Amino acid sequence: MAEIKSTNVIQSLQAGCDLLDLISSSGKPLKYNEIYELSKMTKSNLHKYLHTLTLVGLLYRDKSNGQYSLGSKLVEYGMKAVNQENVVERVMPFLKEINQTCKNTVLLTSWSPNGPIVTRLINAQEGLNIGAQLGTVLPSMSAAGKVFSAFMDDHLLKEWKAKELERMDQDQQAHFEQEMQFVRAKGIAFASEPLVPSISSIAFPIFNFEVKLLGVVVVVGFSNTIAGKLDDMMSQYLLMMRNEISEAFGYSFKRKLK
Q1: Nearest-CA neighbor of 161 among 203, 201, 114?
Q2: Which of 52, 57, 93, 140 could be bridged to 145 by S-S, CB 3.0 to 4.6 A?
Q3: Rounded to whole angstroms, how far apart are CA atoms 120 and 91?
């Protein structure tokens, strides 16, 4: 490992990080002698670094063979870092692209105790009444509501879904369940005029690597400009964007949606 001469760097900390990088990039657990040869550290220093990094959980030493690999604490840090990522900041460039391509209003919706809520909105036409604005809570039969109903964790969804179903008759409830099956199978939802006459929507989920639903993207506009079928060009484009956005958070839609 190269020597660090900057006066603004804690050299021992940097050396420890270099050791973690070395072991991580090896692609396999390493024995002490292998790390010694690759690191170019003195044996006395290397022993101290390995012992300390193992003690705090950044490295793991297999007692049966003496090999070192990344520790559980690094996995914990990594998962926390991903979960704390600013979803809105990372998704905004995609929303702008969708807005420019589809020529319709684009929403980012998040989950709240009262149901799906609009957290970002990019208008396509000033003055167009889409039935929603920032802070609007959307119903279950909206495109966003259908996606959240299909993929949101049951313990978060239970009370809201029960209230929504109370407002439906038996036929509506049966139709709603059919919609859920479609959304789970295809990963996209359509809603014809759920809030305002002549205004329809189409929505898709954003997942992370843990298959956790981070949010739902919605395209809203006049019904004659919004796709209503899976094989429409707009639907196919949005499925492509769905894949691309979720891949940015570590999820691949090549896995079968459950």
Answers
A1: 114
A2: 140
A3: 10
